[in-house]
Fold each of these.
Amino acid sequence: MIMRIFQVTTHPGKEAEFARFFHDTAIPLMRATDGIVEVLPGAPRADHPRDFAFVMVWRDLDALKAFVGENYDSPHIAPEEAELVAARRIAHYDLVQA
């Protein structure tokens, strides 16, 4: 399984608008996506009020590529969130079963 960590930092003043998108669109979309085993959404904390994150566990690399394409190392964003986000970070790991 593949663990994908996706983090975004919003533009200043766009936190509430992005939070609506995050809760109303992004979380339901990811939870309904074929190939995702688990979705762990992360909301901002007081010390970093513009930072949001997803930890997603994908069944395998093929499932991830089916959703984002061959260039899976590039953050996949929806057009409606592009103007809200100042920075994006993505990382992938092989999931370790403890």
Note: Residues 2-94 form a domain with the Alpha-Beta Plaits fold (CATH 3.30.70.100).
Amino acid sequence: MYVVDEKDYEYRNENLNGPKYLMKGPRMNFALVQFQPGKDFKAHYHNVMEENFYILEGKIDVIVDGVVNHLSPGQMIHIEPGEVHYVVNNYDEPVKMISTLAPYQEVDKVEVDNYTY
């Protein structure tokens, strides 16, 4: 058992964008993810890990295998291994969400170039 404090971690990218991992392994990843308006991350998929996003604040578009899902607070999306997903904040306010990935794999992300939907 251990306890972490979000304040002890930083978002991966500048200006409070991207994931802030509070736990990486040994069985799953747990992160807070934040995107400012207009920000996104590259389309990708995972070979083994499944991913979940639970929306805390704001709105976000999560595109999975070409299908656009407009999500808002209280909604969750589950993404299976092999499903290409792209996340973009097309709205005028920041979004904050929780991301979980399991089972933990040190390297399991496959980026997709020139993704269109």
Note: The beta strands are 18-24, 29-35, 40-46, 50-57, 60-64, 67-71, 76-79, 85-88, 95-102, 109-111.
Amino acid sequence: MATNQGRHQTNLPTPRKIRRGCNKELYRTIKRLGIYVPDERLKEGETLYYKKVIGKLLWIAENRSNRKLLADWWDEEVSAELATLWEVDRENLSKAFRAAFGG
């Protein structure tokens, strides 16, 4: 009798999918903030976020269905550096990210 091991396991996303996802999330966040972020700073922010996601990829993949937990991680690990880079209030940035991300 064949077992269905691995049938419900999903593969990790490719680096391209991760980068595109990070870009979309930050774009939606900026849109909710209603500010202009220069292209150079936007690229730096995307790179920063991408590196943080790659560093915690296994944990993020395990918790992919828990948006609140992922948004909490973003608040702790990403928001402070991104707020400094973009010169925006961290609290407003976090609220905009949660609204855009759904957490």
Note: The first helix runs from residue 15 to 33.
Amino acid sequence: MRYVSTRGAAAALGFEDVTLAGLASDGGLYLPESWPVFTSDQIAALKGLSYVDTAVAVMKPFVADAIDEAGLRALCAAAYGRFAHAAVTPLVQLDQRHFLLELFHGPTLAFKDVALQLLGLLFERFLSSRDTHLTIIGATSGDTGSAAIDALAGRAKVDVFMLHPAGRVSDVQRRQMTTVLAPNIHNIAIDGSFDDAQAIVKAAFADTDFAGRYRLGAVNSINWARLMAQLVYYFYAAVRLGAPDRAVAFSVPTGNFGDVFAGYAAAKMGLPVAKLIVATNVNDILHRALSAGDYSTGTVTPTAAPSMDIQVSSNFERLLFDLHGRDGAALSAAMAGFEADRRMTLSEAQRAEAAGLFVSARVDPDEMALAMRWGFQETGQIIDPHSAIGLSAARAADLPADVPVVTLATAHPAKFRDAVERATGQRPGLPARISGLFEREERYATLPATLGAIQEHIVAHGTPARVAEPA
């Protein structure tokens, strides 16, 4: 299995190098050179398997010879052994056709744990045989940061510099990051938005001298290994609802397009996905792109679903690569235009191609609150604002009556206690595994939203890729 950049100029790499690199050297994102395709019999063989065994079967083609099957199984067992539910990502039935896929049973209560617990172990395995140090620089709108920090705290040969927008994450999200006092963890609150943080991360990778001196790596969903791990739960859920003999629809609350692109990858592999519902909040660039061809940025509006308060969806580039016929040069030119003008128009043909699998919805704050209220009053389920956006879009979707619809429940409601209480009158308590969070010491730096300020901080507190031996 080889991986190519969406922008066509970077060298193709194997799985280990792609995992450590994160972003391609030409600024693009890595994708498999071709999609492995499962037969109906192979999908049917997943029925009844544990989550770990499902993960091994689904990810094995992507890992190829970088890790043998026994090694991959050991990594998956370690990663998912920390989850609080034996099913890892259990399905919960809401009514005759709607289901929640609970992705928040990991150590930091969000779906990012599913990928990042594994990614932390992959980093450790690959770095153990290399004479190099890795510096992770990441941007978070809330959940990626805490999941990456939990997965990487105290690990050898890795430093983590995590940027979050000051005042734009929930108190639980912030404290899950800033109360981890491991010496290799460095939290930074920037005076700006998530999009500003994401732009700084990409600019740091683009500074080739700096990126080489510190060997920058990525935990954001620009890293292919994250999406590889996330596509597993689409298979896990679908076979429990009748796949391969029955198609299943998924509603995905998303801002950065990573989680829903994992569903697209699963469909490319042969999983019978009826539709992928792209559920956005009022920061609706993805809905505008898919419904009207208008991929243009606006001003980020802070909401009660902060992980979706995004106007530049990095992973959308991976879909655009396929919509441009996998022509890296053509996409590179299109992305250069977007980065200059902050807008791009999808052609009628591209929109029609995307519409074969994707539909989209924009969910406003009132609709989000109504979905939370419906979930509690009609099914007894308390859900967080992001999951409520997905559920609202799922219930409004025009789909055949015999197609089950799975909404991805991306975060535990306790991470957004105020918003949940406003909508339902119920204030969810923190699970025991993060009890004491509000009594712990916080530690983080507050810096301007500039590349220079972040680079200076990394130079002051980080470790170069190769540390000079003492004279």
Note: The chain has two domains: 91-109+224-424, 132-220+441-471.
